[in-house]
Every structure is written in C-alpha cells, then in structure tokens.
Specification:
Layout (H helix, E strand, L loop, with lengths): L2 H8 L10 E9 L2 E8 L2 E2 L8 H8 L3 E6 L1 H4 L2 H11 L13 H14 L3 H4 L4 H15 L4 E2 L1 H11 L3 E6 L1 H12 L3 H11 L3 H13 L3 H13 L2 H19 L7 E6 L9 H7 L3 E6 L1
Parallel strand pairs: 2-7, 4-6, 4-7
Antiparallel strand pairs: 1-2, 1-8, 3-5
Helix pairs in contact: 1-7, 1-11, 4-9, 5-10, 7-10, 11-12
C-alpha cells in the first residue's frame, strides 16, 4: 500500500513547443465564476516558478480560499493544536502500539537514515507516517514551500483576503481519524514504500503541472479507494462539505486552492461541480 507516501506527496503533487494545461480551472455558473486550483503542499525550489496559469488565477483574484485558514493553522496556537493532537501524552509512545517486528523495522530505517527515533515515536501512527515521508522528501530536497504557502505569503504581502473551506478543528480532525487506523499497517507500509518516494514524486509533479487528472486518478486515487474508510475521511466527506460553500460563492475574484487529489474521480470537485451545472474550463499556460 503506497497510500500514505502518495498522500504525503499530494498532502501536502514538457516540451517547449507544446502549450500544456495546468491544475487550474475556471468554474462558472450564471453570472458567477471562480478559479479552482489543485495544489501540492510540498515542493522543491526547482519547481518554481510555477506554471503561469497559477499566477493568472492569483492576479485575477482578491480573495483566496484554502482547505483551512492557513494563517490560523501556522500560528503558534494552530501549531500547538496540531502537535498536541498528534503527540502521545507522557508515558505513552508509538512503540507501545506497534508490534515488535514493525517497531524493529522503524528502528532500523531510522538508524539507516540517521533520523531521530526518539522524536518520531512520540507521534501517533498516521502523523508519524507522514513525518517519515516528509523526512525522506527532505533528504531528496523536495520539502520546501508548496503552492498553498507560496500564495498565502503573496496574499499577505498584497493584503488580499484569505480564508478556509473548513474550520481548523475540522481540518485537524482528519488526522485524528487517520491516527485511529491500524498502526502496524500505517507504519510498515510507509517504511516499505519509502524506496519509491523519488519515482512517485516525479510522476506526481508531472501529472500535477500538466493538469492531467486522468494520470492523478490512475497514480493515486485507485489505490486510495481500496481503503474506503481512509478514502471517505480524506476526500469524499470533505469534498461534499466544501461543495456547500462553493455553491454559495457570489463574490467576484475568488481563487480556491485545495490538494490536487480533491479534483479527480467521481467524488472529486470537478465532477461534483459539473453535476451541479457549473461550466468547467481548464486554464492553459
């Protein structure tokens, strides 16, 4: 199962003579329209500048809407909530919920990579799995500022309005639900799939930069759908909840930025919006 590694690549996902599409869409209905942007939460410095379609959407927008209010999430209070909800209380740690075999696998990998095992095992299973993938991405030089933070910083510099589709509590609740899944499976499969991180990262970035929803679906969504509880928690429930907000947008100059995987599949935002009578036009570079 490559799910957590793939999600980390997304959760935070060329020929010079061809004009490519990007993961940017203009969504319209009646007299209202907004930009819908698929993001990758972690990138490398070489991924910048982004495809021009992203700046086209940003420059035309005065209000940016992220999955959650990123300014709140990255504030001291928000980071305290994130860490406290995903860190074991004193006297508890990850080793206690893992089998001896899986814990030994984790210990071996940490020693091999010179990762701080003591720090890792203070985190709950899903958060620890994401930390492992993030550490591997850092080793590969691919854990710098992503699309979301890039445009939040620009929005703050230009004094543009920014908000979130879901409350901070709801956003953090997703990780709480994932932490309740089988710990051995979460950690063992993440460790196994770390060797594929570089390949999957390259595939993901190519599909994302080109706005290739079919490739994103084939690379990531099909695996995720094999685990219904995780699929529903991460995508289905949130996409349908976000639709309530998107359908009520009536202001001009809105740019909505969410993880690229939220766009694809039968439960993806592009399909849900189309079913509601919206016109979807992909923006080209």
């Amino acid at each position: 199962m490559k799910i957590l590694v793939k999600l980390c690549l997304i959760l935070t996902i060329l020929s010079s003579q061809v004009v490519f599409a990007a993961s940017v869409w203009q969504v319209s209905k009646d007299q209202h329209s907004f930009y819908l942007v698929g993001t990758v939460h972690l990138l490398s410095e070489s991924d910048f500048p982004l495809p021009t379609a992203f700046d086209t959407a940003f420059n035309a927008s005065s209000h940016l809407i992220f999955e959650t209010n990123l300014a709140e999430l990255t504030s001291p209070q928000g980071m305290h909530m994130l860490m406290s909800q995903n860190t074991y209380k004193p006297g508890q740690n990850l080793q206690q919920v893992l089998s001896k075999e899986v814990y030994q696998q984790l210990k071996t990998k940490a020693n091999d990579r010179q990762w701080p095992l003591t720090a890792i095992e203070q985190f709950k299973p899903a958060f620890a799995a994401i930390m492992l993938t993030t550490l591997e991405m850092q080793r590969l030089g691919a854990a710098s500022t992503g699309v979301d933070m890039h445009y939040l910083q620009l929005a703050q510099q230009q004094q543009k309005k920014h908000s979130g589709l879901e409350t901070l509590e709801r956003h953090l609740g997703v990780m709480t639900a994932l932490n309740a899944l089988d710990a051995d499976e979460l950690i063992s499969t993440t460790l196994k799939d770390l060797a594929n991180t570089e390949t999957m990262l390259a595939q993901m970035k190519t599909a994302w930069r080109n706005g290739d929803t079919a490739a994103l679906e084939a690379l990531f969504l099909q695996d995720l759908q094999a685990f219904p509880e995780m699929y529903n928690t991460l995508l289905v429930e949130r996409n349908h909840a976000w639709m309530q907000t998107l359908e009520q947008l009536d202001e001009a100059g809105v740019m909505v930025l969410v993880g690229a995987l939220h766009m694809v599949g039968d439960d993806g935002l592009l399909k849900l919006l189309t079913d509601k009578g919206y016109s979807i036009k992909q923006v080209f570079n």
